[in-house]
Amino acid sequence: MDELQKKISSLDHNRMPVHVAMIMDGNGRWAKRQGFARSDGHAEGVSTVHRVTKLSSDLGVKYLTLYAFSTENWNRPADEVDTLMYLIGWAIERELPELLENNVRIHLLGDIDRIPEESRKKLLYARDSTAHCTGLQLNMCLSYSSRWEITEAARRLARKAAAGELDPDSISEEMFADNLTTAGIPDPDLLIRTGGEERISNYLLWQIAYSELYFTPVLWPDFSDEEYVDAIIDFQSRERRYGKTSEQVQNNE
Ligand code: IPE
Ligand code: IPE
Ligand code: MG
What we know:
By secondary structure, this protein is an alpha/beta fold. The protein is globular and about 55 Å long.
């Protein structure tokens, strides 16, 4: 048995995270270290996306949410934005047969209308072609930011209230959550950020209220299957108290 298999068999299958979210950071620095252009780092990052998707599927993770491009990333140099947009369309088209084979359903979170048409069509095609899949749900966050989606949700509810269709006093946390792009998806159990920064960068602010956070200095293109399993092992060692005491949690109160 190799090291990875050993680690996988040490996992507690009753305590697997249902939903894993990832901030895929460090492509640019990876490229710089090798003396390559930043875009080469993004291309290399696609193979990590391929691997973590496959491993999530194999481990029985139900939802994998990947931060691929933030609202703020539109402010990067135009040639880098162009490359990223091209890569996103290219990668989804290339991966589609295997995603279908592995019963993976693609879901898109973010302001998809801002994605250039050629890539947008490929993304929508992949989403529609995998709509019947019942295995892993892969949520791709593109042109996404948490403040954007929270503002959108507030606008939608305000419009309904102004039209007399909604009593403002009836707005509950559940109703608010149902108006986010993640409606119907349970909150992430585990959030992993690669690349060494210990910040959230406008990602899933509402949804990570009680997520376990895991930061690793490993750059995204170097994020191996073993490191992913290490993050899950770490997750399984934590006690999720949700405001209660440790005694209450242990007595199942
Ligand atoms: C993450 O890698 C990918 C995107 C944000 C699209 P970066 O491009 O941010 O890589 P670093 O942080 O500069 O190394
Ligand atoms: C976060 O990475 C966004 C994605 C991984 C898509 P950034 O590299 O954009 O984050 P900051 O700017 O360092 O916070
Ligand atoms: Mg970065």
